[in-house]
Amino acid sequence: MLSIQSIVLVAVQGQFTFKNCGTANHHIQLKGLKITPHPVILPGLCTFELLVNVTHDIIHPLQTKFDIKAKVLGFEVPIQCEGTSGSCTHADWCGTACTTCECPVKAGGQTLTIPLEFKQTLPLVSSGTVNSKIEYLSATGQTGCIEVSNVQVRNK
Description:
The chain is mostly beta strands. It has one helix at 93-97; strands at 10-13, 16-20, 28-36, 40-42, 44-54, 62-72, 75-78, 89-90, 108-118, 127-138, 143-155.
C-alpha cells in the first residue's frame, strides 16, 4: 500500500526540477523551490527560496555537502568549491556558509531564503545547465537529501 510519504515529490517550475532523494524518513523534506534569477547569471548573486518541512528542530552544526555539476558540450563537469559556493562540504551550513539562516531551524513548515554569490563561470561555453545533489546531517542525526536538475545558467 502506498503512502504519501512513499511518493517521491517531483515538481517542475520553469525549466528546472527538484526532488527529495534518499528515503521518505529524512527529517528535512523540500516541498517547493524558487530560484531568482532563472536562468542564473554567472558570476553573480542568486537567491534560493526553499519551502521545507522539518520533522524536528534542526540543531546545528548542520553539515551540508554540495555536489554540483555543469553539463558542458554534453559532458558533466564538476564545479569546484570556491569560497562557499560550488561542490563544497560545509561543517556547519548555518554557522559559516549561510548567514541568513537561524539555527536551530524550528520543526514544521519553513521558508528559507538563501542568497548565494557565484564567482565561477561555465568553462568553454556561454550557457548550459547545472545539476546538484545536496545532503544534510545535523548534530543530532537529522538528515535530508535534495536533487535539483536542469538549472539554466549563463555567463555574463
